[in-house]
Amino acid sequence: MMKAHNKPQHGAGFTNTANAFSQIFSLAFQLAWRNLFRNKRRSLVTLLAVIVGTGSTIALVSFVRGISTQLVNDSIFHLTGHIQIRTPGYQDDPVVNHRFSWPDQALKNALENIPDASWAPRVRVPGVVVSERETRPITIVGIDPELEEKLSIAGKATFKGKNLEDSSDESLIVGDRLFNKIKSELNRRVVLMTQSVDNQVADRGFRIVGGFRTTLESVETGFAFTGLATAQEMIGIPHEISEISIILEDSSKLDLTVSKLRDEFPQLAITSWLEAEPMLAAITKMQSGILYVWFGIIVFAVAMGLMNTMFMAIYERIKEIALLKAVGTPGSLVFIQVLIESTLLLILGAIFGTLSGLIGFKIIQPGIDIGAYATGAEMLGLSRIIYPQIFLSDLLTLNLFLLTLGLLGTIYPAWYASKKDPIKELQ
User: Distance (Å, rounded) from C-alpha 184 to C-alpha 426?
Assistant: First the structure.
C-alpha cells in the first residue's frame, strides 16, 4: 500500500504571518489609544496645536485665494475676457488701421459652436474727450450692450444714470472718476475725437447718460462706451471691428479653445487672458508654489512639536517599554505603537483642524472689508470687499503635508523607543 504524502500548504506561511501582524497591530493600537489618555493635558495641548495650525492656515489661505480670484475676475471682466480676437499688430498699436471685417460668417459660426461661451464684437480705439473745461485722453469703445451684459463692466448696470439701449445708441457712458477729471456731469454734452479710417480727425458730440464704477482707476478714468454702430459710423468702418471678446463658462477649456480658433483663423491674432495679462498670470502661477512653501513651514513646526511630545511620552514610560521588551515583546510592537499614537493625534488634529478652518471660512465668506486700507488696495487693483475662496486641492494638500511630515517626524522617536536596552533601563 502506498503511503499518502502531505502536500505542502503554500499559503500557510503567508496566512500565519498576516495573522501575527494583525495581532501585533491590534495590540499596538490598544496600547497607543490607552497612552493618549495617560497624560490628557499633554495630548490636548498637542492636539490643539495641530488644530490651530491647520484651521488658521485654511482660513488665511482662503483669504489669499480670494484676493487672487478677484484680481483674475476683475481683469477678465474689465474688457479682457478669457479670449480676445484681433488683427496682428493691434496689441502693440491699437489704432483703427488694425481692424477686420464683421460680420464674418465663418468666424461667427465658429464662435457659436464654442460650448457655453459668450462673446461680443467691439470697436476699440484711442481718442480724446473734450468737455467745456477739460480735455482728457481716453479709449473709445463701441459696444452692443445686450451682448456685453455677461462679458464686461460695459454691459452692467451703471451706478447712476442709465445704460446704453442698443448698438445704435448715440449716448455715452463714462467712469465716475472721469466726471471729476473733465469737470462734467450727467446729461452734459462732450466731444469725442479720434483718427478716422482715412487718417483724418473724426469728431462727434455725445450726451453723457450714465456713469460706472470699478475697482481699477485706470478703467474708470480711461474708457468711454457708446453704441457699436455709432462708433463704426463715427470712424468710417460700418462693417469692421477692432476685436471680439469671449468669456467661457468652463475656463479649463481655455487652451483647447484658443488652439482650435488659431488653427481655423491663422490670419487673426487670438490670445488668452494669460497672454494679455502676463504679470497677473505669473502671480497666479507663483501663488500656489508660495502657498505650498507656507504649508510646509506650518506643518514642519507642527511636526517638530509632535516629535517633542512623543519623546516626552517615551521618556515618561521608558521603564514600562523596557519591561515589555524584557518579557519578550518585539521591538516592532513598540515602534508600531508609537507611530499609531502619533497618527491618531495627527488624524484627530487634521479632522478638527479642517472643520475649524471651514467654520472660519464660513464666518468670513460674506466678505472682509478692507476699507481702512482702501488707498493701498486700490493701487493693487483690489476692491473694498474681499470674498475668500476655498479650493479642495488646498485642503487635500495641507492635510497630506500634515500626515506625511508628521509621521516622518515621529519615525525617529519610534525607532529610538524600539531600540532601548531593557537590562540597562531596568537597572
Answer: 92
Cβ 213 vs Cβ 152: under 8 Å: no
Give me the residue spans of the domains in the chain: 23-72+281-426, 88-267
In sequence order, what are the residues at sequence separation of 6 or more whose Cβ sits closer than 8 angstroms to the Cβ of residue 184?
131, 132, 133, 134, 190, 208
State the pairing for strand pair 135-143/223-227.
parallel
Nearest residue to 274 (alpha-carbon basis) of 296, 255, 290: 255
Whole-angstrom Cα distance, residue 189 to residue 133? 12
pLDDT by 10s per residue, the chain, length 427: 444 445 555 455 556 555 655 666 676 667 667 777 777 787 788 888 889 888 988 988 898 888 888 888 878 888 888 999 999 988 888 888 899 999 889 999 999 999 889 999 999 999 999 998 889 999 999 999 888 887 888 877 567 888 888 889 999 999 888 988 888 888 899 999 999 888 889 999 999 999 888 877 778 888 999 999 999 999 999 999 999 999 998 888 899 999 999 999 999 999 998 888 887 778 777 877 888 888 888 888 888 888 887 777 777 777 766 666 666 666 667 777 778 888 888 888 889 999 999 998 999 888 777 766 655 656 666 666 788 888 898 899 888 988 888 888 888 877 877 776 655 655 5
All cell numbers assigned to 27: 495590540
> Which residues on adjacent β-strands are paired with residue 142?
123, 226
Cβ contacts of 370 within 8 Å, gap of 6 or more: 377, 382, 384, 385, 386
